[in-house]
Amino acid sequence: MAVTQELLAYYEQDREHGRLREDRGRLEFWRTQDVLRRMLPPAPARVLDVGGGTGVHAEWLAADGYDVELLDPVPLHVERARRLTGVAAHVGDARQLPVPDESVDVVLLLGPLYHLTERADRVSALAEARRAVRRGGLVAAATISRYSAVHDGVRQGFYLNDEFRAAANAAATGSIMRSPRSGFTAYFHDPAEIPLEFADAGFPSVEHYGLQGAFWLYGDVNDWLDDPERRSLMLDALRSMESVPSLLGVSGHILTITHRS
Hints:
By secondary structure, this protein is an alpha/beta fold. The protein has helices spanning about 5-10, 25-40, 55-65, 75-80, 110-115, 120-130, 150-155, 160-175, 195-200, 220-225, 230-240; strands at about 45-50, 65-70, 85-90, 105-110, 135-145, 175-180, 185, 205-210, 255-260. The chain is built from eleven helices and nine strands. The relative contact order is 0.15. The mean pLDDT is about 95. InterPro entries: Methyltransf_11, SAM-dependent_MTases_sf.
């Protein structure tokens, strides 16, 4: 991942550790886990978690019996991830993976692509994943929907702010989100462009999964997530429509999965 000073300044506040463990971020976490558990090869396959943050996914993968190595460009994240049982963690860059060719069964890119604002860097990261994964191996990458800032801004009231509204509208029409709130620049994908980047990296066929659907925008989503029965119903509903093309852009995050031929 491209490590800029603004990126480090944001993540050194240690805000990432709780993002998927709390509140409505749990919906993204549980849905990512749900899709991956259906797609991953059996444990103890070797998983390279690139841009894995503080290990929110590496933790459950290791608990499930996978051989997990985490890479992240933020030293604070790596320090936290090293405390997890069964997880090896190192500072690293998605565009230059420190592993031999065809040496892992799975490469996860659940954070890097939206921090790589240049298309060439995103394709480079995907090509590195292809180099590292064995034939038949799985590559999964997360992207942020181009329209998420407008949707979330209206839901939370940030859209009333002139500066935020201008940034969100710019992202919706041009893909680059220069957030006045987070303090760093990110790339937001149109769903239609994702397979083109994968194709340029050597993956001609992909599958898309909208992670949150429209449910992340609901005011009472935390009530559903707090109640195991209601949460199960919500996850079932999302599973039934997760790959409907017309709904992908509504989801805050899209998970794209492919296999190396």
